[in-house]
Amino acid sequence: MSLRVFKSTISRSLRSQGISAFVSVPRSPRTSLGGGRFQTIDGRCQWMLSLLMPQGGVNAPICHGAGRQHKTISDQVRKVEYVDANGTHQTISDPGLLKAAAGCFGLLGIVTHLTLELQPMSYPVMRPEKPDINLAIPPLTPEDVPPALKGDFTPEQFAEATKRFQERVENDYYSEFFWFPFQQKAWVHCWNPVDDQEGAKEYPPTVEVWLQWIQGWLGGVIIETKFFRAIPGSWQAVFLATLTMAALPPQFLGTRDAEIKTFMPDALHFRRGVQNMRCRDMEFQIPIPSRKDDPSKPDWTIVQRAWWDVINLVYTNPESPMRLALELRIIADSDMIMAAQRGNKHGTASIEVLSIPDAVSDGDWQPFLQQIADKWMSYEKIYGQKLNVRPHWAKEWEGLDLGGIPARKYLKTVAYKDEIPEFRDTLKKIGDAQGWGLKDIKKLFSNELWDELVFDTVQI
Ligand SMILES: Cc1cc2nc3c(=O)[nH]c(=O)nc-3n(C[C@H](O)[C@H](O)[C@H](O)COP(=O)(O)OP(=O)(O)OC[C@H]3O[C@@H](n4cnc5c(N)ncnc54)[C@H](O)[C@@H]3O)c2cc1C
């Protein structure tokens, strides 16, 4: 069954039973899913969805969605079924062991089923906006705004926008922000669901789904043409940004409603076909620090800082290699041992820069990523507290220096110094109970990255 057909079937099935998933199901075109069943557990009538995921690529590297209440997809896993190094089908449902097993990068074995805990169906009311960039995530001071983006806003407008931004990131069920290079406007997608189904519609409507797929396909074709590659980088960026902003709601074509009330799965997958566009992507998870005046509260200024640091960097180079987008999502922490969000008690700013693979060379992209990584990792001194900033495992970080040392060394000796031994010990505990050893999984399921990070002490 194709992913699209599966998602549509499962959405209908979920709706008819009044439930929805609040975490993403895999979006990769290479991911196929099959089968699904619902269960109650422990008589508590929690709805479970068991997915056969021949490529459990979204769960393995601990992927995430958006919203400060939401941990990673791996945090929702209640049972992992897998084929171990001996070829035996095994099950793990102990919560302590799942902290390693549900986000283990494929090191346990071949995952055949994941059982996820879902929330009851609810109905997001989406009002996407395209505010001036100055007011979407306001700068800490007006001086932080590059001259090309300066607006004529009063201190009161900045204060009002800052309050609104803080409310959104702190409380909204789902919060994400986009900026496309050299654009005066941002795209803000923050929403909350309601329990009342009245007025909820399929989104996007069928025609628009096809339109979105075509747009995605066309985008892919255009960026691979000789003409596109030959035009200056700034033109490429502006061309893509203009098309993307035009395609995002509220828009001239397609859904014109300022307010879209829909079903939870539709809101989470409001944009179809985007996964067909190849991209380059570096994403970091920045912990939200505590406020100095009241450590029990989050200090959201770090988000403003991280956001405007990128925008300013883009403006230092008219041919900036960031040709697609700056994206920011607010998410929770994670209980997974190897999650980049682990320990972030106030939540996490999940921030990323994206570009196009064909028109941007490694020689341009890598130094840009290094500059961004240096910025995002420099905030500890400003906030005067430990901030364990870590890259998304499934995105680009290899080849960078983090904290002044090669990324792998940094991850092993600094960012996951305590977590890696805990992860290895938990895997060992699972193996002891299920009849395999660390050397078996190193031999069969590891690669040179995990040999270096996790299994360096394990002799085959
Ligand atoms: C357009 C786009 C949007 C994205 N959006 C997000 C996002 O919103 N949030 C986010 O966190 N990430 C996001 N990502 C990253 C994406 O979720 C990861 O790259 C994910 O790993 C992709 O899954 P895959 O199946 O294609 O990966 P693969 O490369 O096939 O798999 C990743 C790893 O998972 C393991 N694995 C896969 N299947 C199994 C199995 N059956 N058993 C055991 N191990 C297995 C393997 O170790 C493999 O190396 C996005 C990526 C793209 C391209």
Automatic annotation (TrEMBL):
Gene Ontology CC annotations of this record: mitochondrion
Q: Which GO terms describe its molecular function?
A: D-arabinono-1,4-lactone oxidase activity; flavin adenine dinucleotide binding
Question: So where does this one cross the membrane?
Answer: none
The source's superkingdom equals Eukaryota
What InterPro entries does UniProt report for this protein, alphabetically? FAD-bd_PCMH-like_sf, FAD-bd_PCMH_sub2, FAD_lactone_oxidase-like
Q: What is this protein called?
A: FAD-binding PCMH-type domain-containing protein
Organism, scientific name: Tuber borchii
